[in-house]
Amino acid sequence: MRLLLFGPPGVGKGTQAKLLSETYGIPHISTGDMLRAAAASGTPAGLRAKEIMDAGKLVPDDVMIRIVREVLASPRASGGFILDGFPRTLAQAMALSHIFEELEVRDFKVIEFVADDEEIVRRLANRLVCPADGQVFNVETDGLKKGDPCPQCGTPLIQRDDDREETVRERLKVYHMSTAPVIHYYQASGVVLSVDGTGSIDVVNREIKLMIQDAEAS
Fold first, then answer.
1. 129 three-class SS
2. 140: domain range?
């Protein structure tokens, strides 16, 4: 089972990746996890990535691609994987195709989470986070507001800077500009499975598993 997850910020990719990882017994590999692991491993690509990140800069494609190749070629990914956050651009998608050819990865699916921009803005604007334990809450469903004590530990809840409306709209703009060509690239290969990302966690998870099941049976 090899899955690539795509979707706008706040659509629930991370939550679904964790559930799918548990269901299929394969690792959830996110861009952030890859970079942190590479930096800690001491490999040439990892040390270069750490140097760039420590300087507060974005890791360039050539370094990111080398790190992705190292992870996918490792025993950890030998039984399958869920790749979350890569590729983000058409150049990265083409590089990943070369990595797949080299590693003889031929069977994979792209899960595209679809959601209206206004729904994404609303979701993230209502998201509160506990800075102490990382727990996430929702203004609407949990009846909490910014500054309220975390129900778990009592720490005042905050809204992350990148969840503010103006920031979310900018993130969405970048997402649509960079990711739309990537989705078209994979659609040409017939590997894209699209799911409505606005449903509940259970509903979205069930729909993804049904789509995978149908794709494997066909």
1. strand
2. 2-26+79-217
Let me know if 106 is a catalytic residue: no
Domain assignment present for residue 42? The answer is: no
Query: Is position 160 annotated as part of the catalytic site?
Result: yes
CATH of the domain at 186: 3.40.50.300
Name the nearest CA neighbour of 60 among 83, 28, 41, 88: 88
pTM of the model: 0.83
List of residues 6+ apart from 3 with CB closer than 8 A: 20, 26, 81, 82, 83, 108, 109, 110, 111, 212
* Residue 122 is a catalytic residue: no
CA distance 68 to 38: 9
Q: Kindly report, residue by residue over 152-196, the tens digit of the pLDDT.
A: 999 999 998 888 888 889 889 888 888 889 999 999 999 999 999
Determine the distance from the C-alpha atom of residue 172 to the mean position of all C-alpha atoms in its chain, rounded to a whole number: 14
Whether 47 is covered by a domain: the verdict is: no
Q: Per the structure, how many domains does the chain have?
A: 1
CB 31 within 8 A of CB 86: yes
Examine the residue annotation and report whether 13 is marked as an active-site residue of this protein: yes
Residue 190 in any domain: the answer is yes
